[in-house]
Amino acid sequence: PQILYRHEVDSSHDQPGKTLSECAAFFQKHKPPEGYSALGIATFGPVGLDPSRKETYGRILSTSPKQSWRDVDFLTPLSEACRGTSSLPLPVKIETDVNAPAFAEYLLDKDNLSSVAYITVGTGIGVGLVIHGKPVHGRMHPEGGHVPVQPLEGDKFEGYSWGGKSPFRGRRTVEGITSSVALTERLEQMTGEKNLPRSRLVELDDDHEVWDHSANALANLCATLLLTTSVEKIVLGGGIMNRRGLIEKIQKQTVILLNGYLELPKDISGLICMSSYGNDVGLTGSLVLAQSAYEEGQKKTNTPKSSDDSLAFTVGFIHGVIA
């Protein structure tokens, strides 16, 4: 899918109503008279994804670490902004902002594989999973960023300060070691400096020790995914992954951790790799959700696809909300 219009909304003020109003205004600005054909939303979690659970569907769950977003209904204002004159219900698909990119990556190569994992590495660590062509939900949705890590020998950093309400209290977990928050706090520990901005990470050399710990934590996650889900492809994205040479460190360390237990290709750059969509993987994920919702709606109503509907996807009217 092609993205024609885009707009970045600042959500750092922590006012959900303001953020959603700006998102709705963007949709309305570009909306055709008859409204959009479908809506795809990729959002941070934990989020209600089960349409049968009316009390939580389309809402950020009450367990969210983002206090101001707890129990916020994002679906209603966004779907209302996208409706037009048609009396037909608006097809909607909601996913996490990691399951949606995983789905986009799967569709790109679905003739050759049935499973993909997507890992985003930034302020937090998110994991999306598509198994047998479908995003994994189950009890909720994957939260693989909180799995434990075998640290590098002699590592005295035990985890980030944000772990109070996280699994394992954030001690030696993937997110507790390689989120931008954790990496900055490790740097503070190493240098003795206090209150460093996370932007300081950009100034570090590619061979700085911090990146070895980052690569090890992410390699632990890759090994865990390969061993538990037998996933056929692992795609990484997010701000931290812009670090030159980090993906190669992760690939190498994953092979070391697996210790020959799994049969791997000699060149694993196709197994563990960066996103084909670059920084647009989140928006692309939202677009393919919208397209999927539309196609499912057509099957239910037995309505043939019109050229106008097809064009709506091609020009990329539908975008995701990643707050």
Keywords:
disordered C terminus; alpha/beta; two-stranded parallel ribbon; 323 residues; 9 helices
- Given as residue ranges, the uncertain stretches (5+ residues, pLDDT < 50) are 307-323
Q: Level of helix content?
A: 25-40%
Shape: globular
Label the structural class: alpha/beta
| Rg calc | 20 Å
Count the DSSP helices.
9
Main sheet strand line-up: 5-4-3-6-7
Percentage of residues in strands:
5-15%
Strands, total number:
7
- In round numbers, the mean pLDDT is 88
N to C succession of SSEs: HEHEHEEEHHHEHEHH
Please outline the major beta sheet.
5 strands, mixed
Distance between the termini: 22 Å
Structural summary, described in words:
This protein is an alpha/beta fold. It has 9 helices and 7 strands; from the N terminus they run H-E-H-E-H-E-E-E-H-H-H-E-H-E-H-H. It has helices spanning 16-30, 75-82, 99-108, 174-178, 180-191, 209-229, 246-258, 281-301, 307-314; strands at residues 39-43, 92-96, 115-121, 125-131, 134-135, 234-237, 272-274. The strands form 2 sheets. A 5-stranded mixed beta sheet has the order 5-4-3-6-7, with helices on both faces. It has a two-stranded parallel sheet with strand order 1-2. A hairpin with a 3-residue loop joins strand 3 (115-121) and strand 4. Helix 1 (16-30) runs parallel beside helix 2 (75-82). The longest helix is centred in the last third of the chain and has 21 residues, at 209-229. The radius of gyration is 20 Å and the shape is globular. It starts with 15 loop residues before the first helix and ends in a 9-residue tail after the last helix. Residues 307-323 have low confidence and may be disordered.
